[in-house]
Here is the input.
Amino acid sequence: MSDFFVFQAVEGDHMAVGILGISNVQPLLLLIQWLPELESHDLQIFISNWLRRICCINRQSRATCVNADMVIRIIETLNHHSALHCTCAENLIALLGSLGSQSMGSEELLQLIRLLRTEEPKQAHPYVIPVVRAILAMARKQ
Here is the structure.
C-alpha cells in the first residue's frame, strides 16, 4: 500500500524519493485524513511512521508539505485523538514538529494550542508532552 502512495507522491522513479523529494502531496494528505478511520492500530502506526519519514526526507519535501497546508491537516487529524493509537499520534506530532521547524504560521500555532484544551481544567490533554517536545524542536531549529 505505501508503495502506491510513494508512486503517487513522487514524479519519476519512486525509488529516487530521497533525491527527488515529494512533488504531489495530495495522496499523503488523504492518508493523514484517513488515519482515524483505520481500525487497525498497527496500520495507523505503520502509515504515520512512514509519513513522518517520507515527508521529512529532505528540505524540499518539508517545504512542499508545508506549502500544501499539511500542518493544518495533521492538527485536524489529531483532533480525533480517541480514534488514534498513541504511537500514531506521536508520529504525527513529530512530523508536525519537523514541518513546523520549516515554517509555521500563527494560525497553525493557535490551532495546535487549542488542540490541547480539555473539558476538565485539571486534567492534561494526552498530547501535552509530545506537543511541547515538538515546539521545543521547532524552536531549536529556528
The CA atoms of residues 1 and 90 lie 22 Å apart. The chain has nine helices and no strands.
